[in-house]
Design a protein that fits this description.
The structure holds two protein chains of two kinds.
Chain A: H1 2-15, E1 17-21, H2 25-28, E2 32-39, E3 46-50, E4 52-53, E5 64-65, E6 68-74, E7 77-84, E8 88-89, E9 101-108, E10 111-118, E11 124-134, E12 140-149, E13 156-169, E14 179-190, H3 194-197, H4 202-205, E15 218-220, E16 228-239, E17 257-271, H5 273-288, E18 307-314, E19 318-324, E20 338-341, E21 344-348
Chain B: H1 3-19, E1 21-30, E2 41-44, E3 49-52, E4 58-64, E5 66-73, E6 80-86, E7 90-91, E8 94-96, E9 123-125, H2 128-133, H3 143-147, E10 153-154, E11 164-165, E12 173-177, E13 180-181, E14 186-187, E15 192-193, E16 200-206, E17 220-226, E18 235-240, E19 244-254, E20 258-267, H4 269-280, E21 285-301, E22 306-329, E23 332-356, E24 361-384, E25 389-416, E26 419-443, E27 450-455, E28 459-473, E29 478-491, E30 494-508, E31 513-524, E32 526-529, E33 540-543, E34 551-565, E35 568-585, E36 602-618, E37 623-638, E38 647-648, E39 655-666, E40 669-678, E41 682-683, E42 688-691, E43 708-711, E44 718-719, E45 723-735, E46 740-748, E47 758-763, H5 766-772, E48 776-782, E49 787-795
Parallel strand pairs in B: 1-7, 1-8, 12-17
Antiparallel strand pairs in B: 1-4, 2-3, 2-5, 5-6, 9-16, 10-11, 12-13, 14-15, 16-17, 18-19, 18-49, 19-20, 20-21, 21-22, 22-23, 23-24, 24-25, 25-26, 26-27, 26-28, 28-29, 29-30, 30-31, 31-34, 32-33, 34-35, 35-36, 36-37, 37-38, 37-39, 39-40, 40-45, 41-44, 42-43, 45-46, 46-49, 47-48
The chains are: A mainly beta, B mainly beta.
Chain lengths: 354, 796
């Protein structure tokens, strides 16, 4: 059908004429954007930037940082006042806890931005089990079954599996130097569970509009209100971030590599409504952006007098599944310099020996 | 004697008086052609009692025994005055003579049907002559485009036929052609409407205070009546225009008994373009687009009491392409054939029987059929002519639409001069065809073969309503129209009942000023799943379901009419309308694609609109027309759209002005002019780029490079530039031996204003980047610059 619609549009465009409009892009830009995602037992951080002109290339260039003062209120009480000339706020000594309600007030360039969020309680996970199954290609993979107890009220969850692996490169520089690499990444989760599919529902299976994948693995408790519910999912063994497959463990050098251990950590995160909504619409936005046939998708914002997100989540429910391929002791291993990758943090370095 | 006893005595005395009353009844017709005149005014000058003719030109007036002066008048006709000594029930058929020119009117008594005296508010009768004489896009006079010029009515996007009435949507208008709903009233994606003015007798448009006899839509009723046909002699009209030609023929089959009226119209751009396309493709390709429509009406008078009407309309839009090419490859001849058809059209039929049960009771029984179908068909084959083997074949077939069968009865009862009662009921069987898409693909052996269909099966629904309304003259100054419309809708085992009260009040403050108020509750059980920006034939009518509830509205209107002088009215109306269960596409959803699970694509929400409308209208004299101004606001609120915050409706338009003029300089020359101005439409346009929050564990494989997004604040956050346009048309008439010929010359968008059709961001060229320092620019696409048109018509 799209073909015919396009034909119509092309026919119209033959009739049409075009002119450029004056557009006050600079006047509309330079609004303040406050982004701060906080979680239990992690350091509080926030960033303050300015919007850019819509007439700039959307995806190039970085955001312009904005100077400002941040007031942090915990359960209604001012606990911190920090100033940042760069727009990065990393106030020391604040580690949010479950149930904490935070309100932040930012003053910058004569404007005052406000937002609030609460750190939800830890997800009540009754059990989490794994089963090894074979797929049609006879490859083994793990299926996780997490049974959780939904709380009273509206709740939002996210499942995340992070992977940490310690890799030994036996000949990293071609001269026999051994190097250890510790890398972490996020694993790609796949699930047929209806709770995941309910988020975008893909418009009823429309063959022309399959909708976005639920890559963030988020779900509301609409279908499990106040009940115990078992969710099944599995993780592909290729991860995001960088490669750490035990079968292809060559990394950071030339020589043979060996996997020392692999740790998969399942996070059953309890999200605030703000965080859930932000993730949901961010994904929708990127999926449909640029599609002339789709209704526009806004990215969620909960910043009063500004743009951005201030949202909390609880990441205390973590379950580790570890496989050790070779005995080791961290006392004798030195993991070297670390680097950062959007998909997670990985470290690389070298030690002489072992 | 207490007060109750006095009241009872007076009541019975009144009954006694009426028991000695007699009824004058009859029809009001055009003297020349016998065409029955709707809403003609019959008025008794001494006792200040009057009535109007119904939709079939019938009236009934009951008065006590005595001598009376009965006046009959209708705009554009010479009034008639009849002295009568009423001592028995009497039949008086008024045959009015059309004025050669619309001189200033001579008012004969109070005009019952006039805006000043009518209870009905928010209604406009648009003379068909006015529609014909106004300048039109490509010279095609258009009923709906004329309606768009009324205050309170927005036109949607440039050039299209959508009606957005008092903040409502394009699906909220009940468009009736001889009592049959027309579901898609558009040709060529809305640039023309399906109604051929040559076939039409009257156009009435209700945008508020809807009487109880109407139901099923929230915002308006466009009641279009086809001409019955000349009872006396054969007449016709032939017209040749830039894009289409049409003819109309009417006359008696049996003089004064059986009439016919037939009209046809067809565009011919495809016929003209066919040789060019064929030549350009070396004879292999043929393609084009056309639309045609046909109207037919037959009427037969069995007696003064009984008359039968058959009305039919059929119209079709079709785009087609054929290709048949042969090529030699490896010494083998390969044939590739392609056939593509895209078409849509309506068929409507009404069989109506009028019967006069008594002098006071008129009944009309109607059976209707309405069908709208959209169809796409494509077939491509590749065949080896040397070996005779078909290499591959691809086929696609898509159909969607709606089909109705209905029966209804409408009664007009005139029990006394103080009451005009209407009651009746209807039953409709709907079949919704939400779209079946079939694919077929086959190839040589071992190649994949597909033959599949997906979509929704037909949905059957039954809808009925019953209504009762009474137009009560409480006093010469104060009258009221009280009504109740009760409807039910049965679909998928679920029944939706609805009770909808209607009320209109009129107070004649003076001979020149009347004050009016109205309330109406409306319910709508069918929904149009429509594209956001353009009118497409793919728009789908779908029923209320278990999940999708009926749309409901409450509208309050308050206003007044001041008669500046006879033939010139100034009216002001304020309105407030609230709407529930409106549908909008979900964020990200698209109108493209199969309709499987359409309920998942939409959200339900609320809407509000309010505003004031000002209309100065002149209906008689050499200069006729109106100046209208609307100040209004239309908002929506959906729990799951725009994060639950209110937003402006797409066609929220703060200011809307229309100037419509028709001036007759002489019998040989007249001029039409329209000018419209409207605040720019609300669109969703990103206005800045914001950075994404750093979510440390985001799945970066999908969008590793996207660290920012385009921010637009809220839905429909930006206003397009304002819209304004002037059209001018000149009509040159000349009396010939056998009739009148007319040359019409028109200019659409006479000062070639580049009005916005849509906005988009575009990449700047390197040169532009160097000049402006910007990567992109905002561009406006406009559709139509000045477009001249010329047409020739001959009326005999």
């Amino acid at each position: 059908m799209k073909k015919y619609i396009l034909l119509i549009l092309v026919a119209w465009s033959l009739l049409s004429c075009e002119k450029d409009l004056k557009f006050d892009d600079e006047g509309l830009a330079n609004q303040l954007v406050l982004n701060s995602i906080i979680s239990s037992n992690k350091d509080f951080s926030a960033s303050l930037t300015k919007t850019r002109s819509i007439l700039e290339n959307s995806y190039m260039g970085s955001s312009l940082m904005a100077e400002g003062t941040l007031d942090i209120y915990l359960n209604g009480e001012l606990i911190k006042n920090v100033n940042s000339p760069t727009g990065y706020f990393t106030p020391s000594g604040i580690k949010p806890k479950a149930g904490d309600s935070y309100r932040i007030v930012i003053n910058s360039n004569g404007k005052q931005l406000e937002a609030e969020t609460t750190i939800p309680k830890k997800t009540e996970v009754i059990s989490i089990d794994t089963t090894t199954v074979k797929n049609q290609y006879n490859s083994k993979f793990l299926i996780y079954t997490a049974t959780l107890k939904d709380l009273v009220g509206d709740d939002y969850y996210r499942i995340l599996i992070t992977k940490e692996s310690l890799i030994l490169n036996k000949n990293a520089d071609g001269k026999g130097t051994k190097k250890y690499y510790l890398n972490t990444s996020e694993k790609s989760i796949r699930s047929e569970d209806p709770v995941f599919n309910s988020v975008y529902n893909n418009f009823g299976g429309d063959a022309f509009n399959t909708g976005p994948e639920n890559d963030y693995n988020i779900f509301p408790d609409d279908y499990i209100k106040g009940k115990e519910y078992s969710i099944q999912f599995h993780a592909n063994d290729y991860g995001y971030g960088n490669y750490s497959d035990p079968f292809y463990p060559v990394i950071g050098g030339y020589g043979d590599s060996e996997t020392i251990y692999i740790r998969n950590v399942v996070h059953v995160q309890h999200l605030s409504k703000e965080f859930y909504t932000y993730l949901k619409y961010l994904k929708l936005y990127f999926h449909y952006q640029g599609n002339p046939f789709s209704e526009p998708v806004p990215v969620f914002s909960n910043i009063k007098n500004g743009i951005g997100i201030f949202a909390g989540f609880n990441d205390d429910a973590q379950f580790m599944f570890e496989k050790i391929y070779r005995p080791f002791s961290m006392d004798t291993i030195k993991v070297e310099d670390s680097g950062y990758n959007n998909g997670g943090t990985y470290y690389y370095g070298s030690i002489g020996g072992n | 004697m207490n007060k109750l006893s006095i009241f009872l005595i007076l009541f019975f005395l009144a009954q006694l008086v009426f028991s000695q009353s007699f009824t004058i009844r009859g029809y009001v017709t055009d003297q020349t052609n016998g065409e029955r005149l709707l809403n003609a005014n019959i008025y008794e000058k001494k006792v200040f009692r009057g009535t109007i003719t119904n939709n079939f030109g019938f009236y009934s007036l009951t008065l006590p025994k005595g001598n009376y002066s009965i006046a009959c008048s209708f705009v554009g006709y010479q009034a008639q005055l009849l002295e009568i000594d009423l001592k028995k029930d009497t039949v008086v058929d008024f045959k009015l003579a059309a004025k050669t020119d619309l001189k200033e009117v001579t008012i004969v008594g109070r005009q019952e049907g006039s805006k000043l005296s009518s209870n009905q508010m928010s209604k406009v009768d648009v003379p068909i002559e006015m529609i014909r004489n106004l300048p039109a896009f490509l010279g095609e006079a258009d009923v709906i485009k004329t309606i768009q010029l009324l205050p309170g009515v927005q036109s949607g996007t440039e050039g299209t036929s959508g009606l957005y009435v008092r903040g409502g949507g394009p699906d909220q208008n009940l468009i009736l052609l001889d009592d049959v709903p027309v579901y898609n009233a558009e040709h060529l994606f809305g640039f023309f409407s399906v109604f051929n003015p040559d076939a039409i007798k009257s156009v009435s448009f209700y945008k508020g205070g809807l009487p109880a006899r109407f139901g099923g839509r929230l915002s308006s009723v466009l009641d279009i009546r086809m001409k019955d046909g000349n009872e006396k002699e054969l007449h016709g009209n032939v017209s040749v225009g830039l894009i289409s030609s049409k003819f109309n023929l009417e006359g008696p089959l049996i003089k004064n008994k059986t009439t016919f009226n037939i009209s046809a119209r067809r565009t011919y751009a495809d016929l003209l373009g066919r040789p060019i396309i064929k030549k350009a493709s070396n004879g292999t390709d043929v393609g084009g687009y056309f639309f045609h429509d046909y109207n037919l009406k037959l009427s037969h008078k069995f007696s003064d009491r009984s008359r039968l009407y058959l009305s039919a309309y059929t119209g079709l839009d079709k785009a087609y392409y054929r290709s048949d090419s042969k090529d030699t490859r490896n010494n083998e001849q390969i044939q590739e054939k392609t056939k593509f058809d895209l078409g849509w059209g309506n068929i409507t039929t009404a069989l109506r029987w009028n019967y006069l049960f008594s002098d006071k009771l008129f009944v009309n029984t109607t059976f209707t059929y309405s069908n709208y179908l959209f169809k796409v068909n494509e077939n491509t084959t590749n065949k080896n002519l040397t070996t005779g083997v078909k290499n591959n074949e691809f086929g696609l077939d898509y159909q969607s639409g709606i089909q109705d069968y209905a029966a209804k009865m409408d009664f007009d009862y005139f029990p006394s001069p103080n009451h005009r009662v209407k009651f009746g009921g209807s039953f409709t069987n709907h079949t919704f065809k939400p779209g079946i898409l079939a694919f077929m693909e086959s190839g040589q052996e071992n190649a994949s073969k597909i033959d599949t269909a997906f979509g929704n099966p037909d949905i059957h629904a039954q809808e009925f309503y019953a209504y009762l309304e009474d137009n009560i003259e409480l006093s010469p100054k104060f009258s009221i129209n009280l009504g109740l419309h009760s409807s039910g809708f049965m679909v998928d085992g679920k029944f939706y009942p609805s009770l909808q009260p209607r009320l209109s009040l009129r107070y004649l403050a003076s001979d020149k000023l009347s004050l009016k108020a109205a309330y109406s509750k409306m319910s709508q059980n069918i929904h149009l799943l429509s594209s956001s920006t353009i009118n497409l034939p793919t728009d789908l009518w779908l029923p209320t379901t278990k999940r999708i509830k009926p749309q409901i509205s409450h509208q309050f209107a308050l206003g007044g009419v001041y008669q500046v002088k006879p033939g010139i009215d100034f009216s002001i109306e304020g309105f407030y309308k609230s709407m529930d269960n409106l549908l909008e596409y979900k964020e990200g959803a698209s109108f493209v694609g199969a309709t499987t699970g359409w309920e998942d694509k939409v959200e339900m929400g609320k809407g509000w609109s309010y505003g004031a409308e000002f209309l100065l209208q002149k209906t008689t004299g050499k200069t006729t027309g109106w100046i209208g101004y609307t100040l209004s606001k239309a908002e929506r609120q959906f729990d799951n759209l725009n994060f639950g915050e209110k937003f402006y409706a797409r066609y929220d338009r703060r200011h809307d002005i229309s100037v419509v003029l028709n001036h007759r300089f002489s019998d040989r020359f007249d001029l039409g002019l329209t000018w419209v101005y409207g605040t720019g439409n609300a669109v969703t346009l990103p206005t800045q780029i914001a950075g994404v929050a750093n979510i440390s564990t985001t799945n970066i494989m999908s969008y590793p490079y996207q660290t920012s997004y385009e921010y637009f604040g809220e839905r429909n956050n930006y206003r397009m530039p304002s819209y304004h346009r002037m059209d001018v048309g000149f009509n040159f008439h000349k009396q010939k031996k056998h009739g009148i010929r007319t040359w019409s010359l028109g200019f659409y968008n006479v000062y070639s204003r580049q009005n916005p059709f849509f906005l988009m961001f575009q990449e700047n060229s390197d040169e532009e980047k160097a000049q402006t320092g910007k990567d992109r620019k905002l561009s406006q696409i406009s559709l139509f610059p000045i477009i001249p048109s010329i047409s020739y018509s001959f009326k005999f």
